[in-house]
Amino acid sequence: EKGKYEHFMLKEIFDQPKAIEETLDRNLSDGGRVSLYDMTLTKEDFAKFNKICIVACGTAYHAGLVGRNIFEKFVKMPVEVDVASEFRYRDPFVDEKTLFIAISQSGETADTLEALREAKRKGARVLSIVNVVGSTVARESDDVFYTWAGPEISVASTKAYTTQLLSLYLLALYLGDLRGTISEEYYREVVSELSEIPEKLEKVLTLRGDIEKLAKKLYDRDQVFFIGRGMDASVAYEGSLKLKEISYINSFAIAAGELKHGTIALMEPTTIVVALATQSKLFDKMVSNIQEVKARNAHVISIAKEGNTAIEEHSNETFYIPECMDEVSPLLSVIPLQIYAYYVAKEKGCEIDRPRNLAKSVTVE
Ligand code: F6R
């Protein structure tokens, strides 16, 4: 039921603090340890692996991109991420030393399922991150990590994405601990940051009114870029997908450092650039990228962490997310982008919950 919300998408955006809380509750013990009771993967199994391969489609793939950074950092192993429709046709190098992770909200996406079967044929161990209990992907995996987002009705994925992100963090903590690649202190710090996310999400959701006003002003622009570096680039891809799928605006995401290798040629005074600048180490680099697009008169909407006000003089608008560890910022920074996509589509009179040409579950190849 949509309740007080006009669309399922808006309801599901606002469901996120609760969904995240649920995923945390199900997987964290009182002592702040990630406890995965159903996990059959042992320390000995894990010691055999020499690589992790993450495969998914669309939004779930974007979650996988964040997952790569997290796994590299926590588990210290080579990590590949690919879209399922490419992975399954390129004769990927996968063997019994591979931990294959499939991510899927529905658990029924044809390409993801076939990629999983291919990885299994090649001997990989299969772990999946799935929302729908008992779905085909879940049934065919060696282990399943459920995201506990609850049913997602809107075609555009929101709470499934953030709970997929959270599942990847929890899994990376768990595996990092099994492998002894994460320090006790850092583990505790990450757990404490994750526990604070529901409250911080509530705060980010209060940006709704300001974002709606902005969407009313800018909804008829026909070109929107999303830029960022590091994990912000992965969030940029997701923000761009949200906007294009429900508002039909031609939108494009790119790692900010790549702009000057071609794409910056497209900047025009009517172009909107949504710039994510939440990564402390990359902040100055992002500010220079913002200056580059500003010099071409693009309209810049920035997303930064509270306190980083230096960005305001280079931006037309700035939205702040609460202070947090860089590693967990995707859980917060994607929210303004979801809300922006929603209100732009609403202004344009689009059918938000059922965008044209799209299906909730893509069971064709
Ligand atoms: C975008 C969206 C799609 C799905 C993709 C994979 O908002 O929902 O990109 O993420 O079709 O679907 P699942 O996760 O069900 O495998």
UniProtKB/TrEMBL annotation:
Keywords: Aminotransferase, Cytoplasm, Glutamine amidotransferase, Repeat, Transferase. GO terms for biological process: amino sugar biosynthetic process; carbohydrate metabolic process; fructose 6-phosphate metabolic process; protein N-linked glycosylation; UDP-N-acetylglucosamine metabolic process. GO terms for cellular component: cytosol. The active site is at K360. It catalyses: D-fructose 6-phosphate + L-glutamine = D-glucosamine 6-phosphate + L-glutamate. Residues 42-181, 214-355 form the SIS domain. It comes from the Bacteria. It is an enzyme of class 2 (transferase). The keyword Transferase applies. Homodimer. Catalyzes the first step in hexosamine metabolism, converting fructose-6P into glucosamine-6P using glutamine as a nitrogen source. This is Glutamine--fructose-6-phosphate aminotransferase [isomerizing]. It comes from Mogibacterium diversum. The chain holds residues 246 to 610 of 610 of the full protein.
